[in-house]
Amino acid sequence: MVIKNIRSICFFSIVLIFSFNVFAKNSDKSIIEIGNCYQLQDITKMEANYVQVSDIDCSSINQHKPIGDGSKPFIGSYDGQNFTITGITFVQKGDDYNGENAGLFGIVKNATIKRVVLTDYYIEATSGDAGALAGVADVSIIENSYAQNGKVVGGDRSVGGLVGYSRDSHIMNTYAKGEVVGKDSLYSVNVGGLVGHSHSDLIENSYAAGNVKAYANVAGGLIGRSYATEIVNCYATGDVSSTRGSVGGLIGETWVTDLYKTYATGNVTAEGSYVGGLVGYADGGGTIENSYAQGNVTGERYVGGAIGYEAWAANYINIYAVGLVEGENAGGLIGQMISYFPPNIIASYWDTETSGQTFSEGGEGRTTSQMKLLDTSIPTYEGWNENVWFFEENEYPVLF
């Protein structure tokens, strides 16, 4: 079932109008070629169209200056043409750059970024949003772009493997394979393998494969915190660990977020509460459909194989969890939920043997043999679409 609602229709309309305006605005601009690191560092025309024409090595540059800031964001376009940018290094010290954002781009707004490939990078922020590609993406399009073999370290704001904070943007066909670390902070920090904080975005056909380590209160293998975001055909494979709570293998905390065809396979470990193999804390409704979690999950309280804590009448359709679940108020599929706003759960399961849990706040428990279709005496996966799921005897189902 394709997730459609009024919010999605409005979002797509905004994206279409925005895309037309961006390309109309830039259609009469000449293209500026970028062929080396000095030219990359010298980008000053924030409204221009740039095209990368060769691989670029920036390893000899001690301190990269992020392109675009709060007073003058990048509003043009950059096409990397799948050439690499190697060795970008940015370390923010104290209150340098007045809390501006860290990444190849500091902030992009009404911009289009595509076919950018970052390798061997190191980005560290103390007081701004941080991501390998962009600290902040605001009403922008990011597509076919990748970050690999690097590390992003965040401070007081959101930190992500690709983008730190994203709002009203379309992120598609992207991945991040580097490590992401959120440092200890007194503020609310969001740490994600791909995006730290996603607000009203569409994210599709993307994944994160790096480990996420957080000394913060919201962390996820793909996204730290999501608000009114739609996520389609995405996954995370890295392990997620945190000294606090709201931690998930895919997303740490969701609010009115829809997930369709998603999964997480990494182990999740937290010293706090609200910990899930897929989502740590789910609030505000939303739908999770055709999704699964396979990693082990350990937390203090409210720990679930898929969902740690369900707070508000969400829809869970065709999901499963199989990892070991440990903690207080634990459940094989869902750890805890608010009884007066219960979720709608349809054809969703957990493995009672591998999880070590005979209880869940929702869903149906099955043995390993039943989950792997070796024992069909009790129906499992009723109504699941064989065009969406691949079933093989003695294996857990996976998504096409």
Structure description:
The chain has 400 residues and is mainly β. The chain has a single domain (6-399), classed as Pectate Lyase C-like. The strands form four sheets. It has a 20-stranded parallel sheet that branches. It has a 15-stranded parallel sheet that branches. Strand 45 and strand 46 (398-399) form a beta hairpin. Mean pLDDT is 91; it is low at 1-28.
Instruction: Label the CATH architecture.
Output: 3 Solenoid
Shape: elongated
Report the sheet-strand fraction: 35-45%
Low-confidence stretches: 1-28
Number of domain modules: 1
And the CATH topology?
A: Pectate Lyase C-like
Calculate the terminal CA-CA distance, rounded to whole Å.
Answer: 14 Å
Structural class: mainly beta
What's the total count of β strands? 46
Task: Output the number of helix runs.
Answer: 3
- The CATH C-level name is Mainly Beta
Brief summary of the model shown:
The protein is mainly β and 400 residues long. Helices cover 8% and strands 44% of the residues.
List its salient traits:
15-stranded parallel sheet, disordered N terminus, mainly beta, Pectate Lyase C-like, 400 residues
How does the SSE layout of this entry go?
Layout: H1 6-26, E1 31-34, H2 37-41, E2 49-52, E3 56-57, E4 77-79, E5 84-86, E6 89-91, E7 105-109, E8 112-114, E9 117-119, E10 122-124, E11 130-131, E12 134-138, E13 141-143, E14 146-148, E15 151-154, E16 159-160, E17 163-167, E18 170-172, E19 175-176, E20 179-182, E21 190-192, E22 195-199, E23 202-204, E24 207-208, E25 212-214, E26 218-220, E27 223-227, E28 230-236, E29 240-242, E30 247-248, E31 251-255, E32 258-264, E33 268-270, E34 275-276, E35 279-283, E36 287-293, E37 297-304, E38 307-310, E39 315-321, E40 325-331, E41 334-337, E42 344-346, E43 349-351, E44 364-366, H3 368-371, E45 389-390, E46 398-399
Parallel strand pairs: 1-2, 2-4, 3-5, 4-8, 5-9, 6-10, 7-12, 8-13, 9-14, 10-15, 11-16, 12-17, 13-18, 14-19, 15-20, 16-21, 17-22, 18-23, 19-24, 20-25, 21-26, 22-27, 23-28, 24-28, 25-29, 26-30, 27-31, 28-32, 29-33, 30-34, 31-35, 32-36, 33-37, 34-37, 35-38, 36-39, 37-40, 38-41, 39-42, 39-43, ...
Antiparallel strand pairs: 45-46
